[in-house]
Amino acid sequence: ILKRQFLLEQTAISLEKQEDRAEAEAKILVVDDESINIQVLVNQLALNNYYVATASNGEEALNLIEKVNLDLVILDVMMPGMSGYEVCKKIREKYSLVELPVLMLTANSQLSKVCMGFECGANDYIIKPFEKQELLARIKTLVMMKNAIKQSEIDPLTGISNRRHMTELAEVIFNQHREENKAFSIVMMDIDNFKKINDTYGHVAGDHVLIELVSRCKEVLRSTDIFARYGGEEFSLILPNTSLENAVKVAEKIRVNINKEPMKIAENKEIYFTISSGVAQITKNTESVEEVYNMADKALYKAKEGGKNKVEV
Ligand code: GH3
Ligand code: MG
Ligand code: MG
Ligand code: MG
User: Fold this and answer.
1) Is the pLDDT of residue 23 over 70?
2) Which among 113, 122, 130, 150 is placed 20 to 30 Å from 165, CA to CA?
3) What are the residue boundaries of the GGDEF domain, all occurrences included (predicted)?
4) For ligand 1, is residue 164 a contact (CB within 6 Å)?
5) How far apart are CA 259 and CA 257, in angstroms?
6) pLDDT tens digits for range 152-205
7) Which alpha helices (H) appear in the chain, and where do they start and end?
């Protein structure tokens, strides 16, 4: 009987692994000042197919968070130097509860301490010594939540940000740049005569053009640029720290990169496709990010009126 139970358990685990691959690929940072605690956690997480990074103090943790795109932080409270509470507060200055979940781990079961953890921005809290299954269940839930949010920000066809995510990011960047008096530009792009491509080669071929456009844009963009599908065959670029002049250069580089070679659209058929772009930047009088979008949109209209395959301001 014991043997069968063991087998069943193994089968259940391996099935679960396959079904939950998305969760299992999550990247988790374990922060604890005691190396034995880190070891125990790392072993458990690795066994469950999570990617694990470790830090033994707050500063190290905050540094790593800046560099690695994490899905969860497991944070010890009692640490020399910065406490887990302080680290969590620092994390929350930059990342919301859904952007980077924090699971606090501590030996202190005092109610006030638990509540303090949540006040500092923890998503969840577990008291040492913990049950392995409970910890894993909590981790799984937090990672699932993070994945669900991530999915809701992405355009399924092209894999880049969707309009909703872009609008949120644009708002944050706009406010930051206005406060710091820094340049900030937006580019609106629209495929030329896309209807004709769809009508001639079909919707599926049209979809491939959208995917190809994204790939050709990415060849030109920097990692700090935000590239999103605004809707249909319209795309938008948010360029932090970028003047109008430089934004025009970027848009022009993209325009040329898209048009420089044909793409295979059907068996034995290659086509060239083009885009038009409108560029705008924030000025001293700009009050909202929508104003910048409207200006970029007007410029895009001008590019279309002027014959397409053009960048206008
Ligand atoms: P213009 O040069 O003035 O931009 O003309 P256009 O034909 O590109 O523009 P219009 O706005 O008239 O047509 C856009 C077309 O894009 C209409 C719509 O069917 C198509 N479209 C929107 N979303 C998708 C999509 O996800 N896939 C495909 N294949 N087509 C799409
Ligand atoms: Mg500790
Ligand atoms: Mg359009
Ligand atoms: Mg179009």
Assistant:
1) no
2) 122
3) 182-313
4) no
5) 6
6) 999 999 999 999 999 999 999 999 998 899 999 999 999 999 999 999 999 999
7) 2-19, 21-24, 35-47, 58-67, 84-94, 111-119, 132-151, 163-179, 194-201, 203-218, 244-259, 289-305
Question: What residues contact residue 90 under an 8 Å CB cut-off, 6+ apart?
Answer: 58, 62, 82
Peptide bond between residue 129 and the one before it cis (omega within 30 degrees of 0): yes
Assess whether the C-beta atom of 191 lies below 6 angstroms from ligand 1.
Answer: yes
Q: How far is the CA of 204 from the centre of ligand 1 (A)?
A: 13
What is the distance in A from the centroid of ligand 1 to the CA of 226?
22
**CA 96 / ligand 4 centre spacing (Å):** 36
What ipTM does the predicted assembly reach? 0.96
Indicate which residue's Cα is closest to atom 19 of ligand 1. Answer: 195
DSSP state of 131: P
Residues 117, 122, 123, 126: is their CA dihedral positive or negative?
negative
- One-letter identity of residue 87: V
| pLDDT tens track for 256-312 | 999 999 999 999 999 999 999 999 999 888 999 999 999 999 999 999 999 999 999
Ligand 1: nearest atom to the Cα of 210: 27
Ligand 1 within 6 A of 178 CB?
A: no
Determine the pLDDT at residue 224: 84
Tell me which residues are annotated as active site.
233
Q: State the pLDDT at residue 22.
A: 45
Helix 84-94 crosses helix 111-119 at what angle (to 10 degrees)? 20
